[in-house]
Each structure stands twice: as structure tokens, then as C-alpha cells.
Design brief:
The complex is a heterodimer of chains A (about 525) and B (about 325). Chain A is of the alpha+beta class and about 525 residues long. Chain A has 16 helices and 19 strands. Chain A is about 30% helix and about 20% strand. In chain B, α1 (about 1-30) packs antiparallel against α13 and α12 (about 265-275) runs antiparallel to α13 (about 280-305). The longest helix of chain B is centred in the first third of the chain and has 36 residues, at about 85-120. Classes of the chains: A alpha+beta (about 525), B mainly alpha (about 325). At the A-B interface, α6 and α12 of A face α2, α3, α5, α7 and α12 of B.
């Protein structure tokens, strides 16, 4: 380069860099408007949020309704309709201070009367609310003033706060006047959320539109809490039960977002559909898959037999069979994402065939048949069953599959009618509710300390105390093998690349506030 | 014929009573508790008992049956356990979807099957006959879900001619509604056409060898007239029965087609209701389907008189 041309070249270079930087778009600003078409894998089951436990209903109606308190990004408790709350020293009074000026979609202001009505309603026997027992310790609810409501408890139960914030069923604060006007067969749900209900055409769509008078609460978006801004004019949820048809609808741009991408199609999405403008995201949720082992049934009641089972199983094989590897190995009912998780919860048995065989011998096992109850409703359940059966058979356990319909399996689970049972669960922010299942496999009867741990944990929100209690519970599980937790399951979703501001929330609930469509 | 029709309508009463009785008790024989399914894993026994009591499911079965039947007679099919909506309202919303789909499928299938069956019979034991019958075997054997997905892939994703999901009622917007129905209707029609074409062929073969056909030809009638006016009309009886049965079955819910094409029909509703042990929904739908089935059978029987004047209903 000639001496004289160097400064010119440098100037041009600097100028072009400045030009390039200045022409690079900054983080795109949210745009208002448009309809987001969302492919959901099953229809909602009801529009009255208190009468169904279906997660899809809670997820969809979670845009119409709001909870008193909610879960944050890491499953911690966050304020929603209640600005703050106070707990008395003896835990027997919980006072909620409500946000002022929160409007229902009919224009009426939400007040303490509505909160009292809501919690009275879900506790009445006539309402088909699935988690009444979580609120059974409420003695009475008092409206202190228009924006203050106090819960008087029969006994200390702070786990109830998590139940209020729980994912599903949605403990939505409803408008007293509307519910009384519409009666039990609610047709027009009225909430305080950023979107209002327009119509539900079963198996066709659920249509919501932006509630213009919604005032987002302060603070950054955090789980169900923080700022919830509705940019989209409308949300249209379209149930598409057939997985391949759902994928085709996404490719055809008939849906903007698919909340369920089958694990078997993930590679195809990555390899082929990414270039067609489809964004794929995968995150590990706190949902878990497991087997329950009944501690009071023949053969499996023997501790050495259960330990032999634990040594016989390779969890990676189960993970592969159930989820095609789309999960993170995990051993405890306290999920990794949970605020009370510590590395202690990773402790579990490593596969050791020799030890398994030795323990079987010591247990005096003579090849008796052991049934694994499973339903084919969820393919992952059947995957777990087949893998577990094969692993158990490999060490000489005569494991048989007992395939039954879902309704039957539920009945067996609650009727103490199983030896080994395959199940999976959605996120339990409060591990106390996760350890509920110890009631169903006979563990609490055999080891009453488990029930005590639950009660002690329910009586405190002190993180350190709770961590210690849940570690003790996990140690008990290691010692007694009442179940075998295999993994935390991944969630895979996909959307068009013009959908902005959306990300999977590991808790499994959809959130379309803060989401917009680029024009 | 009027007397016959009235008599047949009266026969409906015991038929439907037997169906009602059987469906009521059979549904309850299947293990599984609808309340437990509905309330999920957090429900305690007290809640389950309270809801069961509220829904009357704690009463003795004969009393439950009596109450339900009494309501049905008054036109109340009950309320769905799962959705809390009246069952009749759901049937009213969904049956038009199913009947539109099925009727369109029937039309397509007749357009395909009758000429195919006739031609196969006329050219029997020739290459054309084998070709048509091979097509019908393919039609019968190809699984509906596979045909459905394949048609979605080709006509919706690749060619972009039709939408892949959704539904717009044709009574709201005829042409748009039609675009949502063509693929599922053709998918259903291919299967139906295959069965009807085979039946048409065999009935035509029976008739074509009869003397009156030879006589008609000897009179100098054109082959088209002989085949359509003389042969097909007389051969149509068994085909009509097959069409009636197939149509009736499809009206009961083209479950797979409705699922693949995301159509909000009756079949999808029944399937979900069975899984949830939603007794009122299952009972109501099956009773309704039985009613439709017997009505179609009556219509088919009455149509026989047109195709075969020897039949009299006195």
C-alpha cells in the first residue's frame, strides 16, 4: 500500500464500521397488534378455572385470570393481585394487601370481597375444585377493608401459599357478582388478566383479546408476576391432537407457535425446518417421571427387594426409552429448578447388577411375578415401563406389564391397588405437595417420619429449615426406596421467527404477555 | 307406506330403550372413576365423595338409570362431568360438522364408486376389471390416518391448495368452509368408495347375466341405457344397503379423520368423553348415534321401493 493511500483507507474503514454499526438494528422494539395462533395439543376441558385440573386450561385461562400470588421464574412466591402479604408469628393469620384499581373485564374493581368469595367458593363441597385439601386448614376469611383480606388458619400451613400460586388448577380470583349472575355453568369467564375471553368453540379454538384497561404491575416479567404487557390484539388457541398435522400447520404458517413438539421430531426441526424460519427451543422442566413402589404389597414390601430394583435399573436407558433422551437425569422429588434443591438430591443408586442379584438372594426372592401397572395414554409412561421391565428381568425379576386404561390406572393409584406403578408429574413448587404421593404407596404408614417432615415443612417458609427437611426426606427415600425418580423432562416448543419476546418457561405454563409479532 | 313408516318409528322406542339400557350399564362396567379423573391427584376422598353425591353418582344404578332416562325423554341429555356443559348442546354443535363431512364424503364416494363398480362388472375378468379392483383393494386397505396425513402433506403443505387445520362451517361461509372439508371428505370417500364399488360390481354381475338384460339389448336399446336404467337400477339394492350402513357408521363419528384434520366433530367428542369416563356425554352421544342409525336404516328401507318396485310396505 502506498504511503499516501493508507490514511484514506483507514478513514474509509472507520467510516464503514461506523456506518455498519449505525445501520445494525437495535434490539427490535415490541410492536402492538396481530393475532397469535397457538397450536395446543389438546382442548381445554372447561372455562370455569375452579372446576378442572387440566394443565392446558390453567395455561390458557392464566391469560384471562390472575392469582392472588403467583410463582416466579424459579418457582418462588411472587405478588400478583396481592401487592404483599404478612404472616403472623404463630402462622395462624395471613393478611393479604391487594393492589388498588385492578379491574375485572366487566369494568368492576377487584376487592377483598372477591378474594373472600373465591376462596370460600373453592372450599364449598358443590364446586368441583380438585385441591380442596390444600385449603382445608383455613378456618375463616375476613374482609378487613376493601383492599385487605385476612385468612385465619386452624393450624399452621404455609404450604397453602404455594397452593394459591400453583400452576394447575388455577386458583383464579373470580368476580363475585359475575359468578353469582352466571351461576354454576359459567359461560363468560371474567377475570383481571391482560386478555379477556371472547369465545370457546370446543375442538376449534379458544379466542382471547387484549383487555385495554389492564394495568401491568411494576417490575420485570417474572413467572406469573412482574410486568405483563399484552402487545398482541388476540390470542387464538387451536387444539391439534395429531402431532404430524400440528407440525404441518406450523410449516404452513397456519399456526405461529406450537406448544408441543414431539421428541422424535426434534432433529428434523433442527436440520430441516430451521431454514424455513422455524425457531426451536428446548428446556428442562421440573416435571418428573418415576415408578411408585408399593411398600405394603407382597414381594415389593421387602426392602432388600426394592433396593435390588434400584441397583438393577440404568436410568439412562429409561430416559432414552421414555423421552428419546430429552430430559436430565434426576433422582429426587425436589426438582433441580426448585428453590429448595441442593446437590444432595442427586444422590441415588448406581446400576450394579451383581449387587442387585445379591440383594434379591438375601430378600429370598423366588421368581414371584411382580406387576408394573402402566397406561398407554402417555407414550413416555409406556417407554418407562418397557425399559424398567427389561432392566428388572435382566437381574432375574419376573416383571410383567399390566397395561390398563388411564382412568383405571388412576383408580389403581388411589385405591392402593398396585405393586409398581408408572407415573409422571408436573412441577411441584412446594416439595411438600410432591411428597404427597408417599401416602399412596404406603410409605407414610410404614415410616411415619415422612408425614412429620411434610407437616414440619408446611409450617415454615424458612429456606434453610426447609432445605434440611427435604434433604432428610430424600435420605429416607434412598434408605427405603418407595419410588425411583428417573429424570426431569424437557419441554420442546417451536415458533415462527417473526414471533418475538417468547421463551419457554420451564414451569410448563405458556405466557404470551411481552410477546409480539414482527410485521 | 305411511303405515309402515309409523310402525317402524314405533319400533324405535324399544330399540332405543335397549340401547339406552346397555350403554348406561356397559359404560359403568368399565373400571375407572370419572370424578377421580376429573379432580386429579390432589383430591381427597371427602371432595370426591361430595362431588359424587352432587352428581348423583352415589345412588343405586337403577335409580340413576331411571333419572337419566326420565331426563332424556324430556330432551335433557344431562351435563358433561368434564366440561360442565349440557351434552345436548355439545351434540348440537358437533353433529352438523360430522354430517357435513360425512355427506360430502358420501357424494364423493358415490361419484367414484358407482362408475368404477359398473365398469369393472362390464369389463369383468379383463385388465380394466383387475385395475379397478386393485384400486378398490388399495382403498380398503390404506389406513385412513395415513391417507389423511399424506393428503395433508401433498395438498396442504407442498401445494398449498387447502388449509391443514381448522374448520369453518359451510353455513357461515360456503366456499371457505368447503376448502376445510375437501381433504377430509376425500380421505373418507376413498375408503367408502372402495367398499361400495366392490358391492356395485358384484350386484351388477348378478343382474347382467339375467334374461331381461339380454331382452333389453335384443330390443335394440343402447348399452348406456341398458346398463344404467335396467341393470344399475335393479342391482342397486344391496349397494344401497352397504351405503346406508357405511353412512350410518360414519355419522357416528369419523374419529380418526376428525382427529387428523382437527375437525370438531362428534367422533372426537365421544373419544375424549370415553377416556374421561364422562358418563352423561358417552351415554348421550351413543343414544343419539343409535337414533341416527335407525333413522338412516328406515330411509334406506323406504328407498328400496324406488329401486325395486316389487317391494311393498303394507
Amino acid at each position: 500500500m502506498k504511503k499516501g493511500t493508507y490514511p484514506v483507507f483507514l478513514a474509509l474503514l472507520i467510516a464503514s464500521v461506523i456506518l455498519a454499526v449505525s445501520s445494525t438494528p437495535l434490539a427490535a422494539a415490541p410492536q402492538r397488534g396481530g393475532t397469535l395462533n397457538i397450536g395446543i395439543n389438546t382442548d381445554i376441558t372447561a372455562i370455569d378455572p375452579h372446576t378442572t385440573t387440566a394443565a392446558i386450561t390453567a395455561s390458557v385461562m392464566g391469560h384471562v385470570y390472575e392469582r392472588l400470588i403467583g410463582l416466579g421464574e424459579n418457582l418462588e412466591l411472587v405478588p400478583v393481585l396481592a401487592e404483599r402479604w404478612e404472616i403472623s408469628d404463630d402462622n395462624l393469620q395471613i393478611t393479604f394487601y391487594l393492589r388498588k384499581g385492578k379491574l375485572f373485564h366487566n369494568g368492576q374493581e377487584m376487592t377483598a370481597d372477591d378474594v373472600k368469595f373465591t376462596f370460600d367458593r373453592i372450599r364449598t363441597p358443590e364446586i368441583k375444585f380438585g385441591r380442596k385439601k390444600d385449603f382445608a386448614d383455613i378456618d375463616r376469611i375476613e374482609v378487613v377493608d376493601k383492599y385487605t383480606v385476612r385468612f385465619y388458619m386452624k393450624k399452621s400451613n404455609l404450604s397453602m401459599l404455594y397452593s394459591m400460586a400453583y400452576l394447575s388448577p388455577l386458583v383464579a380470583v373470580v368476580c363475585e357478582d359475575e359468578v353469582e349472575k352466571q351461576g354454576e355453568k359459567m359461560t363468560n369467564p371474567i377475570g383481571t388478566g391482560p386478555y379477556k375471553f371472547v369465545e370457546w368453540k370446543p375442538d376449534r379454538h379458544i379466542l382471547l383479546e387484549r383487555f385495554e384497561k389492564y394495568v401491568p404491575q411494576p417490575g420485570p416479567k417474572n413467572g406469573f408476576g412482574g410486568e405483563r404487557v399484552a402487545y398482541l390484539d388476540k390470542l387464538k388457541f387451536i387444539p391439534i391432537t395429531e402431532e404430524s398435522a400440528a407440525t404441518m400447520a406450523l410449516l404452513n404458517k397456519e399456526v405461529d407457535l406450537l406448544v408441543y413438539v414431539p421428541f422424535g421430531m426434534v432433529e428434523q426441526f433442527k436440520n430441516n425446518y430451521a431454514k424455513k424460519g422455524i425457531v426451536l427451543e428446548e428446556k428442562t422442566s421440573p416435571n418428573w417421571g418415576e415408578i411408585q413402589i408399593h411398600m405394603q404389597k407382597p414381594v415389593v414390601e421387602n426392602l432388600k427387594f426394592r433396593q435390588a430394583m434400584a441397583y438393577a435399573i440404568d436410568r439412562d436407558i429409561v430416559l432414552q426409552a421414555a423421552l428419546k433422551g430429552h430430559g436430565t437425569p434426576h433422582s429426587s422429588w425436589v426438582a433441580r429448578k426448585n428453590a429448595y434443591y441442593t446437590p444432595f438430591h442427586d444422590k441415588w443408586y448406581e446400576k450394579d447388577t451383581a449387587k442387585a442379584k445379591k440383594l434379591l438372594k438375601e430378600a429370598g426372592y423366588n421368581g414371584e411375578e411382580v406387576n408394573i401397572s402402566v397406561s398407554k395414554k402417555y407414550p413416555m409412561h409406556f417407554g418407562i415401563a418397557v425399559a424398567v421391565q427389561s432392566e428388572l428381568q435382566a437381574v432375574g425379576i419376573n416383571a410383567k406389564l399390566k397395561v390398563m386404561e388411564w382412568a383405571n390406572l388412576i383408580k389403581a393409584m388411589y385405591g392402593n391397588d398396585f405393586e409398581i406403578l408408572i407415573c409422571s408429574h408436573t412441577a411441584r413448587p412446594d416439595p411438600v405437595t410432591a411428597y404427597f404421593y408417599m401416602k399412596l404407596n404406603g410409605m407414610e404408614e410404614k415410616y411415619p417420619r415422612m408425614a412429620q417432615i411434610k407437616e414440619e415443612a408446611a409450617g415454615t417458609l424458612d429456606t434453610q429449615k426447609r432445605i434440611a427437611l427435604f434433604e432428610e426426606a430424600h435420605q429416607m427415600c434412598i434408605d427405603t426406596v418407595p419410588s425411583y425418580v428417573f429424570y426431569n423432562q424437557n419441554i420442546v416448543q417451536a415458533w415462527q421467527d417473526n414471533v418475538k419476546g417468547y421463551t419457554i418457561w420451564e414451569a410448563g405454563m405458556q405466557r404470551y404477555w411481552g410477546v409480539w409479532k414482527e410485521k | 307406506m305411511l303405515n309402515y313408516s309409523i310402525r317402524r318409528l314405533l319400533y324405535f322406542i324399544p330399540t332405543l330403550f335397549i340401547v339406552a339400557f346397555m350403554v348406561f350399564f356397559l359404560v359403568r362396567l368399565i373400571p375407572g372413576d370419572p370424578i377421580q379423573v376429573m379432580l386429579g391427584d390432589g383430591a381427597n376422598p371427602e371432595t370426591i365423595a361430595a362431588v359424587r353425591e352432587k352428581m348423583g353418582l352415589d345412588r343405586p344404578l337403577p335409580i340413576q338409570f331411571g333419572i337419566w332416562l326420565g331426563s332424556v325423554v324430556k330432551g335433557d341429555f344431562g351435563t358433561s362431568i368434564q366440561t360442565n356443559r349440557p351434552v345436548l348442546q355439545s351434540i348440537r354443535e358437533r353433529f352438523p360438522v360430522t354430517i357435513t363431512l360425512t355427506t360430502l364424503a358420501l357424494l364423493f364416494s358415490l361419484l367414484l364408486s358407482i362408475p368404477t363398480g359398473m365398469l369393472a362388472a362390464v369389463y369383468r375378468n379383463t385388465g380394466k376389471d383387475y385395475f379397478f379392483m386393485l384400486l378398490t383393494i388399495l382403498g380398503v386397505s390404506a389406513p385412513v390416518f395415513w391417507l389423511g396425513l399424506l393428503s395433508l402433506l401433498v395438498f396442504s403443505v407442498k401445494l398449498g391448495w387447502f388449509p391443514s387445520i381448522g374448520f369453518v362451517p359451510i353455513w357461515e361461509d360456503f366456499w371457505t368452509g368447503l376448502t376445510y372439508l375437501i381433504l377430509p371428505a376425500v380421505t373418507l370417500a376413498l375408503h367408502m368408495a372402495a367398499v361400495v364399488a366392490r358391492m356395485t360390481r358384484s350386484s351388477m354381475l348378478e343382474v347382467l347375466r339375467l334374461e331381461y338384460i339380454t331382452h333389453a339389448r335384443a330390443k335394440g336399446l343402447g348399452e348406456g341405457k341398458v346398463l344404467i336404467k335396467h341393470a344399475l337400477k335393479n342391482a342397486f339394492g344391496p349397494t344401497l344397503t352397504t351405503i346406508g350402513i357405511q353412512y350410518g357408521q360414519l355419522l357416528g363419528g369419523a374419529v380418526i379423520t376428525e382427529s387428523v384434520f382437527s375437525l370438531p366433530g362428534l367422533g372426537r367428542y365421544v373419544m375424549v368423553s370415553i377416556h374421561a369416563r364422562d358418563y352423561p356425554a358417552v351415554q348421550g352421544c351413543i343414544l343419539f348415534m343409535a337414533l341416527i342409525y335407525v333413522v338412516i336404516n328406515l330411509v334406506v328401507d323406504l328407498m328400496y321401493t324406488y329401486f325395486d318396485p316389487r317391494i311393498e310396505y303394507n
